[in-house]
Amino acid sequence: MRDVEEFAELGGYSVPTFRRIFKETFDEPVYQWMLKHRCQDIRNDLITSDMSISQISNKYGFESLANFSHFCKANFGKSPRGLRSE
After folding, report:
1. Could you read off the pLDDT of 24-42 as tens digits, one per residue?
2. How far, CA to CA in Å, does 44 sit from each of 48, 49, 55, 76, 84?
3. Per the CB 3.0–4.6 Å rule, which of 47, 52, 58, 78 could disulfide with 82?
């Protein structure tokens, strides 16, 4: 899923209704849940896969390597290369 709207549509809900139901069910906002899982997937790909950093960046829809690097530094405290070397 790329965004909350896609997720809501998949379930057949309006976005506000989906957000409310998700928060009641999982006790966290849907966007936070999606971000947490996206971070886990990115970290896993960087640490365990043979894909290049550029391929991983493209897989997750980043517009540039600079944006991907900024995302990693903001969410993990390290650059993609730094995560990969763990």
Report:
1. 999 999 999 999 999 999 9
2. 6, 7, 14, 12, 9
3. 78
- Taking the CA of residue 45 as centre, how many other CA atoms within 13 Å lie in the half-sphere pointing to its CB? 18
pLDDT digits (tens, 9 = 90+) for 49-79: 999 999 999 999 999 999 999 999 999 999 9
Nearest-Å Rg of the Cα atoms of the chain is: 15
What is the Cα–Cα distance from 14 to 19, expressed in whole angstroms?
Answer: 9
Residues sharing a CB contact under 8 Å with residue 25, sequence separation 6 or more, in sequence order: none
Dist. CA 71–CA 65, nearest whole Å? 10
- Yes or no: say if 23 and 34 are a contact pair by the CB < 8 Å rule: no
pTM: 0.83
